[in-house]
Write a structure and sequence with these properties.
By secondary structure, the chain is mainly beta. Helices cover 9% and strands 55% of the residues. A hairpin with a 2-residue loop joins strand 5 and strand 6. It is globular and about 60 Å long. The mean pLDDT is 89.
């Protein structure tokens, strides 16, 4: 992650991360925060709109989980106005008078301050786990590199590549609009994509309590690639950190099932945003997630790559085809309550939790 932040200012460092030579431009980038306290679920999505513009949008949204009243704000910014600086192991991301984020890779301390007319926010956090589920960096997947895509390629561009670095931890203190909102749990990740890369359609379910992290995501690609993270926090025990593929040609499917015999499925009651059931089955742990009827609330619907001032007539035929592919991809974020059943080590746990329910899809 540290090199990723450095590469924002010097994309040549992406060659170091990817072990590639040749031109690699930073064409897609985001930072994403999912922060939970007793009364609030708070999100920030900070994304470069597309490779043809300097636009960055700061999307701030969430819900007071006690009143169940959602809020969302989209603040347009320019990439040239975002300052990412490094002082030894301290990274600072700043937009003057609006946004300040720091991460200290020596102490694992993080801070987040946002000041806009609609909302003022401050979080102080501690990163406790940097475990990744990205196949690019996991040694056990490298023998499959020449048989399948491990690099998140969505186009035929030379040196297209991506890296997503996650972090989980604790919220030590927080305030929203001057009100003390206490401690909680946090998810943060930063994503970099090169040479026409974009983030394709997916669906993501995420549960984070004091005791469990359950991250189940599936991309809508040919192999239905599914990055998965499952951790018992109190036991400091990772049950799963890796990638599963639902649809894969033989004999790779059999090889994958032998290597990591897991089954991740979900069903939705009609359209996206409705009630759902999620199932994860493996040798070590089985999980069933059922949304509570009628509890799903829409927080944000956002056209992720759409420019408001791009003159499409100036694009080449290739670039126009690419832009037409991405401009109708929409990012939908939902909040809901669910019942979670977990079977492991011959015992069963059942509890209620708040669930992140997120979709990227073509509309």
């Amino acid at each position: 992650m540290l090199t990723q932040f450095d590469a924002y200012n010097n994309p040549r460092l992406l060659n170091t991360l990817s072990s590639r030579s040749g031109s690699m431009t930073l064409d897609y980038w985001y930072m994403y925060y999912h922060l939970r306290t007793k009364d609030y679920v708070f999100y920030t999505l900070f994304n470069k709109v597309n490779r043809f513009t300097d636009d960055i949008n700061l999307c701030v949204y969430g819900i007071n989980s006690s009143t169940r009243i959602p809020f969302n704000y989209v603040i347009p910014l320019k990439q040239k106005d975002i300052n990412i600086n490094r002082d030894n192991k301290l990274i600072t991301v700043k937009k003057e008078d609006i946004f300040l984020y720091t991460v200290n890779f020596e102490t694992n301390e993080m801070s987040y301050t946002l000041t806009i007319p609609e909302i003022q926010v401050h979080f102080k956090m501690l990163a406790t786990d940097w475990t990744t589920n990205q196949g690019t960096f996991l040694p056990r997947y490298q023998p499959l590199r020449y048989l399948m895509n491990l690099d998140g390629k969505e186009t035929d561009a030379v040196n297209e590549w991506m890296v997503d670095s996650p972090c989980t931890g604790k919220i030590l203190e927080s305030s929203i609009n001057g009100r003390n909102t206490g401690s909680g749990v946090m998810w943060f990740d930063t994503y970099s994509g090169t040479n026409y890369h974009y983030l394709n359609s997916y669906i993501w379910f995420y549960i984070h309590t004091d005791e469990w992290i359950i991250y189940l995501l599936q991309y809508d690609n040919k192999t239905k690639t599914s990055p998965i993270l499952i951790k018992n926090i109190k036991q400091n025990r990772w049950f799963y950190s890796g990638v599963n593929n639902v649809n894969m040609f033989e004999p790779l499917r059999t090889m994958f099932k032998t290597l990591e015999p897991v089954d991740f499925t979900f069903s939705i009651d009609g359209d996206f945003g409705n009630d759902f059931v999620v199932s994860f089955l493996s040798n070590d742990i089985n999980i069933l997630i059922k949304s509570k009827s009628g509890s799903v609330i829409s927080l944000l619907k956002y056209f992720y790559y759409r420019s408001t001032d791009l003159n499409e007539s100036t694009l080449s035929a290739h670039d126009l085809e690419y832009y037409n592919r991405i401009k109708n991809i929409r990012f939908d974020e939902y909040f809901c309550d669910a019942t979670i059943s977990i079977h492991y080590d011959g015992k069963k746990e059942e509890f209620d939790a708040r669930v992140l329910y997120e979709i990227m899809h073509h509309v």
